[in-house]
Amino acid sequence: MLCRRGSRNLNKLVSSATKATYTVLMFCNAIDDFLPMFINYKWLHLYSTWSYNGLTNARYNCSSSSWMEAAQFFDWFINSYTSHLVQPLDVGVYKALKQSWRRVLREYYQETGYKNVEKLMLPSLMKNLQHSGCLSRANAIGGFNGSGIYSLCKENMMKKVHMAEMISKRAKNEDDRQSQEKTPTMQRQKEREKQQEKIGMFRGSRMSPM
Fold it and tell me: Using the 8-state DSSP alphabet, how is residue 29 labeled?
């Protein structure tokens, strides 16, 4: 609790409903290294004017309560433009997790004959998943190491960026190929429809009374 010396009624509660609230995070270590401030506003959308004339390299975000929540911390911790490339759980954990979960479900379905998971059974299935060994120390360490987050490795990050670019190019080429294959088919279909319309008009003219 912060107060002036000699203040009284320190247990008095003051509502913040009529006041502006902000969260300002400052970070330093034992050797006097300071990271740029993180300033969080109480709002639903962040406006560019709210960072005008601010500190160099400071980060800004907002939340409905102005409190620092998981989404805001993630925005500060990992750049929003690279988070899809350096997610350590995607690299080292989720593949083994999904494989183990499929095995747990398969065994459960075979034993019970059920086709879905009831709420009462979910805790025991989660326990089986935990004991399957998929959430291991080695997988967690491998995920952070493979993504280049810890230990920090620029080469590993660049490999993932290059791989993502290759996958994006392949997907684009495949879409272009499919669109090219569909174009002649669509043209032939349109020509066939025009011919059928002409035939229908010709037959109608012959059958119409004079």
Answer: -
Examine residue 135 and state whether it is found in any structural domain, yes or no: no
Residue 54 located in a structural domain = yes
Q: Which region holds residue 57: left if phi is over 0, alpha if psi is between -120 and 50, else beta?
A: left
Domain presence at residue 65: yes
In a domain, 72, yes or no: yes
H or E stretch at 147: helix 137-147
pLDDT tens sequence for the chain (210 residues): 666 677 666 665 555 555 567 888 878 777 878 788 888 888 888 888 888 878 788 888 888 888 888 777 777 776 555 655 667 788 888 889 999 999 999 999 999 988 888 887 888 899 999 899 988 899 889 888 888 878 778 787 777 766 666 666 776 777 777 766 666 666 677 777 777 776 665 555 555 554
Structural domains counted in the chain:
1
